[in-house]
Amino acid sequence: MRWSQFLRRYLHRLPPGSGDFNQNLDKFLPGNRITWLSNGGEAYRSMWEAIDSARQSIHLETYILNSDATGLEFGRRLMEKARQGVSVRLIFDSAGSLDIAPAFLDRLRRAGVLLLEYHPLAPWRARWAWSRRDHRKILVVDGRVAFTGGMNISQDQIPCEDGGQGWNDAHVRIEGPAVHELNRLFRTVWFKETKKWFSLEDIEKSLPGDSWAWVAANQEFLHRHRIRRAYLNALHAARRGVCIANAYFLPDHGIAQALAGAARHGVSVRILVPGRCDHPAVWRAGRRTYDLLLRNGVRLFTWEQSILHAKMAVIDGAWCAVGSYNMDHRSLRHNLEVNLHVLDTELAAQMQKKFEGDLGSAREIKLPEWRRRPLIDKLRERFWYQFRHFF
Q: What is the C-alpha separation between 200 and 182, in angstroms, rounded?
């Protein structure tokens, strides 16, 4: 299979002492069925269907929980299941959910939903913190089906024709052994913050699909580079094509050099970046890296129709990644993140199709044009780049 050839190249790039092929293969769990969800409407409908089918437990972890129409719909379904006796736990980040209505949280609590506000911003509150945020997006139902990707619980993700903002994002539905790994990550955060333990459902012995998946997370301090290293290994292993869409694209020197090096060696490297952004400082700092990439043959395209919020990659039509990890310093150093790295040519083809469609609606940046941009833009980019480690 083509992905197995890619995996051998990928593992060959691991540092000395990482073990042989078979020892590292255990990071990728076989037997998963992964369904591609290309927009918020499709993703939310699938998530609601899973929630409505819950019989034992629902674990939802999100950076942004809004009390808008989408948040209220999620809340209604979660409260209904809690009243039916299903164990419902909800983790939301305090900074990401800063605008949430207190009355909405009160209704959830009264219905029996167990809530954890991750790292409140107020110093007088327990577990408060400023910098370290929970940026993950995880939903696990009954330990049998899970969802992860870039989508928060917000009307922003809903298509424009349905009354939302139509953000360009990516999410997946998962069945198989990877579900347990996502559930385990949720429990680890819950226990660390509340000191309250709970058992997980037994892993089903059946293997519903053919995808090999690795749930890569930066939970522990000593493993905060795990997702970045996986990207580097995959880029070094690339032989044909690299496609990346990233919401807050501010690559460090190592990632930028890996992208440039792949392009210099004849790999087609195409990156979809935001044409506008909900965090302008990060956007401007990231643009500071474009010149290096362009002059080495990397092709950059800007998405200007809506906010680009996806974090996805496809390499050689075999290895693909989707999750919450942005290529910036905050994801590397400060945030709790999770990425699903998958070896599956069929899923990669679906993601590639989405990527190609987006490129058809994007504008390519050419080096001569880029270098003629206004001086004020160059100065702003240089200024904000100096603060890239603080975003």
A: 11
Q: What is the pLDDT along the chain (391 residues), one digit of tens a residue?
A: 466 666 666 665 554 444 433 445 568 899 999 999 988 999 999 999 999 999 999 999 999 999 999 999 999 999 999 999 999 999 999 999 999 999 999 999 999 999 999 998 877 777 777 778 899 999 999 999 999 999 999 999 898 888 888 899 999 999 999 999 999 999 999 999 999 999 988 877 778 888 999 999 987 555 678 888 889 989 998 999 999 999 999 999 999 999 999 999 999 999 999 988 778 888 898 899 999 999 999 999 999 888 899 999 999 999 999 999 988 777 877 889 999 999 999 999 999 999 999 999 999 999 999 999 999 999 998 998 898 877 6
* In a shared domain, residues 221 and 369: yes
**Which two tokens mark 227?**
């997702």
Residues 270 and 338 in one domain: yes
Burial (CB count within 10 angstroms: exposed 0-12, middle 13-18, buried 19+), residue 351: buried
The catalytic site residues sit at 135, 137, 142, 309, 311, 316
Residues 222 and 357 both lie in one domain: yes
Whether this prediction's pTM lies above 0.85 is answered by yes
CA 101 vs CA 65, 68, 105, 158, 372: distances in Å: 10, 9, 7, 20, 46
Q: Identify whether residues 12 and 40 lie together within a single domain.
A: no
Asked if residue 391 is part of any domain, the answer here is no
Contact 61, 137 (CB under 8 A): yes
Note whether 312 and 231 are same-domain residues.
yes
The number of domains in the chain is: 2
Domain end (from 160, 194, 228): 194
Can you give the residue range of the structural domain that contains 350?
Answer: 4-25+214-385
User: Residues 272, 303: contact at Cβ < 8 Å?
Assistant: yes
Q: 155 and 14 in one domain?
A: no
